[in-house]
Design goal:
Jelly Rolls; signal; alpha+beta; 5-stranded antiparallel sheet; 2 domains; 11 strands
Length: about 220
């Protein structure tokens, strides 16, 4: 019984360590053409009913932008993870919320025709609380060719390192002039990422651990230990 209690106590520790140490990258693939991203990554759907992995991440005023050469609505090319990116149209910013929080850093690829844009990391949801870090960037359009079409074909990396725990990101700039891709949490490098353990994975791990403990306990009981 002591062994069983010890192993079960270990489960939440493993889960917490895995989540905090894991890098999450959103590539926006699978979201509907021109759809509001909404809760696609939050256990819900985009505005067209498509759903993705539940990372607990929601978006406000953000839209999926699919390369026109792939049948989409976007004047883009050479995307870091073809063929979908993120844009905002109706406001001069899009908000991303992650209620569980993230730390260390944040990074992304961008293609911009805006002279001034800012991405800010905040301690609370809705771009509120304490400003933990921000990055300013401008126009990087040109010096590239499409695939075969697309004017937004040059992609640079933006990154922010910060201390503390962040729960939201504000993508600011001129509406309809910036495309984002491979939005990455927990790293200042969007080119390296790992998949987060899903709740199903954690549940299966816990069941397996419980079964191992139960079997070992039965063996000990037979031997009188």
């Amino acid at each position: 019984m002591k062994l069983l209690k010890t192993l079960l106590a270990f489960v939440p520790i493993v889960f917490a360590a895995s989540v905090s140490a894991t890098i999450i990258t959103l590539d926006f693939e699978g979201i509907g053409i021109g759809a509001d991203i909404n809760d696609f990554y939050n256990g819900g759907t985009d505005s067209l009913g498509n759903s993705g992995i539940d990372y607990g991440i929601s978006f406000a005023d953000a839209i999926a932008c699919l390369d026109s050469d792939a049948g989409g609505n976007c004047n883009s090319a050479n995307e870091p993870s073809p063929e979908t990116g993120m844009i905002f149209l109706n406001n001069d910013s899009a908000i991303l919320n992650l209620s569980s929080g993230f730390d260390t850093g944040f990074s992304f690829f961008y293609s911009s025709n805006s002279s001034a844009a800012t991405v800010s990391v905040w301690s609370e949801e809705g771009a509120t609380g304490t400003l933990l870090g921000s990055i300013d960037f401008g126009n990087n359009l040109g010096n590239c060719s499409g695939d075969p079409n697309g004017n937004y074909c040059n992609w640079d990396i933006g990154s922010v390192a910060f201390s503390g725990t962040a729960k939201s990101i504000d993508f600011g700039g001129t509406a309809n002039f910036i495309i984002y891709d491979d939005v990455t949490f927990g790293s200042v490098d969007p080119t390296s990422s790992n998949s987060v353990p899903t709740p199903t994975t954690i549940a299966l791990f816990s069941i397996a651990l419980f079964g191992l403990a139960y079997r070992n306990q039965k063996s000990l009981n037979r031997t009188g230990a």
